[in-house]
Amino acid sequence: MINIQSLTFSYPSGEFQLDIEKLSVASGEKVAFIGPSGSGKTTLLNLVAGILPLQNGSIKVDNDEISALSDTARRNFRITNIGFIFQDFGLLDYLDVRDNILHPYRITSALKLDSGVQGRADMLAEQMGIADKLLRHPSDLSHGERQRVAICRALLTGPKLILADEATGNLDPKNKLHILELLFESVKSHGATLLAVTHDQELLPNFDRVVNFNDFLQGEAI
User: Fold this and answer.
1) Of 178, 173, 174, 179, nearest in space to 150 by CA
2) Rounded CA gap, 222 and 216, in Å?
3) What is the CA radius of gyration of the chain?
4) Is 6 a residue whose pLDDT tops 50?
5) What is the secondary structure of the chain as a DSSP string?
6) What is residue 136's predicted lDDT score, i.e. its pLDDT?
7) What is the mean pLDDT of residues 73-95?
8) Which terminus of the chain is less hemmed in, N or C, by CB atoms within 10 Å?
């Protein structure tokens, strides 16, 4: 599903540099990214999603070379194939919860919004325990509720790849495990792949593999 070769990336300011000689993730695999803050975990998710432009190396997602796509093609590929759960939620305050969940279908012609999609949005909201919040706006929700909205939006398209940046970081222990189970169920039902950044050591046994970004600092291939 994902094949990364000879990747290096750095920001214009600062001393940070991400350096990955090789990283492969199989289709359907559930992989947790761990490591200290600033080690490049979120940066790698953004590179895989095509949000950040690749500087050097190669990233293939489902045999598509991300850097070879135009800006428009990369955006459409991300919307139709990748569900991204952002650490800061990425919700739009002027939209209510339902429209935030449906937002991917509003911003591209590559997806068609119909009654089936709307029904799936309502079903996801029910599963996440926010069905009674659909007409509220993000500013009226708790952090945990906003996180659930973001997860619903990411799962709505039935993506092949789910990128989760601290997806359970704002949830209490009981809901944390429930949401993780829903993520894993979505991965299984759609044959999807999951890359999840987490600092929660208790969650790691639930993943197929754990990638420690400290290893990249030592120049190791994974």
Assistant:
1) 179
2) 9
3) 17
4) yes
5) -EEEEEEEEE-SSSS-EEEEEEEEE-TT-EEEEE--TTSSHHHHHHHHTTSSPP-EEEEEETTEEGGGS-HHHHHHHHHHHEEEE-TT----TTS-HHHHHHHHHHS-TTS---HHHHHHHHHHHHHTT-GGGTTS-GGGS-HHHHHHHHHHHHHTT--SEEEEESTTTTS-HHHHHHHHHHHHHHHHHTT-EEEEE---GGGGGGSSEEEETHHHHTT---
6) 97
7) 91
8) C
Domain 2-217: state its class.
alpha beta
For 208, the token pair is 């197929």
**Residue 218, pLDDT above cutoff 60:** no
**What's the average model confidence in pLDDT over 13-28?**
87
Domain residue extents for the chain: 2-217
Distance of CA 70 to the CA centre of its chain: 21
End-to-end Cα, the chain, rounded Å: 15
pTM of the model: 0.90
Place of tokens 């070379």: 65
pLDDT, tens digit (0-9, with 9 covering 90-100), for 119-148: 999 999 998 889 999 999 999 998 888 988
4 strand-pairing partners: 23, 59
Over residues 51-68, mean pLDDT: 91
d(CA 20, CA 52): 16
Strands 193-197 and 30-34: parallel
